[in-house]
Amino acid sequence: MSWLILGATGFVGSAILQAAEAAGLDVAGAPAPRLSSEATTVAELAAEGSTHPTLAGLTATLAGVSVVVNAAGLAAPRSGDTPELRGANALLPTILAQACAAAGVDRLIHLSSAAVQGQRDQLDESLDLAPFSAYSRSKALGEQALQAAASASRIVIVRATSVQGANRPTTTALARLAASPLASVAAPGTAATPVTSVESLADFVVKVGTFEGPVPLVVLQPSEGMSVRSVLEAAGGTPIVLPRRLCRVLLRAGYAVSKLAGERLHGSLRRVELMWFGQAQEPGWAAAQGIRVEQRVSGVLESAASRRRQGRSGRQGRSGRQGRSGRQSPANR
Asked: Exposure of 212 by Cβ count < 10 A (0-12 exposed, 13-18 middle, 19+ buried)?
């Protein structure tokens, strides 16, 4: 069984490549083509993909490959609706599904996002989509295109949740937020949250790719069991507990303002909403099959908090040395 990871140099792709190598798989990485698209419907994507110049090259690249993982895409929750966003998140998976079908690939695993289900109380593996921003709509359109192509190729859509990693700017920002006066949760702070580690996501993708039986079209990344409070505490904070009603009022007002501004604040507001209220998820296919992943995200967040403290200490130390040196210099006397 040979594997090909598309987007293997990216944050998620590199982790999957490492996990596949650790599992002893015959795996290689390949860069993803940079695409743009004006298509806004599945039919338009399918038509564009079938005549796209990259289709023949991708089909040739996939010859003899058993499992293809699409870890490429544009992770831009705060982006507006652009052809580049739709090209990376909707057109690319469309073309890849066509290429896999033509090359006889056994399984195509596409990395999607739980953002396609928007602000619903509980994530699941259904085809019910409720995107709320340009980014989530582009990911949802990519899923819909793959649903339409599922009969032509063995496709699995893995919905990743809130993925954290040692070198991810999002995780660094979370550690800064946790240590700030803004760190807060909606009472009582015990709500489940889909915050997970990139290593656990990578392990899950390998388990999906090597699973011998049939796999559903959509599978949800398993939870690592964190709560909104435990996430902020692991990241080095002591969150304030806010009244739930106040949080709801503030979010409604924020989304209203963001809508007037062309949804520019939707991504940031959604991060705040997840910090306050989290989001539950159904156990899903993985639990039914007895598939478990190691719970690593707490350690990832603790490491991010430690790096933040070390960086702050280092800056303060340099500032102090510069100040003492300045007072002793002849020019300052």
From this structure: exposed
